Request: fold
Amino acid sequence: MIRTHNEIRLLLACSRPQMESENADRICRLLQEEMDWNWMLKAAYFHGVWPIMYHNLKAACPDAVPQDILLNLQKGYLAGAMRNLMLSRELLRITEDFKEHGIEAVPFKGPTLAQAAYGDITLRSFSDLDVMVCKQNVLQARDILLSAGYRPEIPMTYSQEAKYLKTGCEYNFDRQSPNIHVEIHWRFLPMGYCVSFDEGIWSRLETMTFEETTICSFSLEDLVLALCAHAMKHQWAKIKLVSDIAGLIGRNQINWERVNIGAADMGLKRILHISLLLAHDLLDVGFPEQIFYEIGGDITARKLASHLTGMLFVEADRQKRIFDNNMLRMRTRERLKDRSRFLFLIITKPTQADYDMIHLPDSLYPLYRIIRPVRLFYQYGLKRKLI
Reply:
């Protein structure tokens, strides 16, 4: 997705969660330049920033935007706003249902993040609901959703379900009329990413007022790290991933000492540094001087952030470059033990592609640990040599 500097600068200026007078002036100046508006629309929807783009363009100087473009963005914004409101109501219903059954549920991402990072649930694009529960409550949460008309996205046998609960991080459910997708999490990321938040995350829970209802929320510091880890999972490939982090930091008082301690304990310092560099370089987010000093000493983080910035507007099928993607993720870890474990799990931990390659009975499940490295060697080693 390659474009001129003016269009990229306008896209980034319109993706900032907070509209300040300086940024409004920047948008108005850029709108005086010739723009490829078809590219701008495609980029806004691809990067998931069309609601905030519409809001910022309308607030800055709507008369300078072609009428058909503004109408297109308005249509997308209104459709998204209606769905966001519907999902917000369903989120409150689910969390209340869980609470009545004694399950402590913590919404994150989705509408609660929209409020925390953008100040308005209509300004962030999202399509599903993410709720964290303790692992021992996952099956009870599943039963509650089933009784409410939801069905598992991927049906599993009891044996498959038990194995998945050991290594996975989320149980996904769908419901029709209206179409709603709910993800019940017990980890932020699958075990294969070697990112484990400590159990103290539950003792650090806070509350927030959402739609005039008090609900549980993660502490701002834990949420910053969770968003950084989530962005790493997706290789910071969309502006929204960075904008979420920028908005949360910009609108809230962050205890950076707690963030640094948490990042160091989990081996997420480099992932944090990359995320903050992108938030600063792309969206002009500021941080305390000490944070800038620490980031400045992380040469690898600066190189990776520069590389990721260059890739942000390049059309590429990232999902087909699994080998390269995993090597990049491995470089984001500063601790040798995390890199080693990550590489080991890449090679040995079966995925859906391995299950699809050959179907084995439960009794032969351990053989998938042999099948996976063989498949990887053929796909990324032997196959490349033959080409």
Remarks:
- The radius of gyration is 22 Å.
- The beta strands are 106-108, 129-132, 151-152, 170-175, 180-185, 206-210, 213-217.
- The domain at 5-349 is CATH 3.30.460.40 (Beta Polymerase; domain 2).
- The longest helix spans residues 67-100.
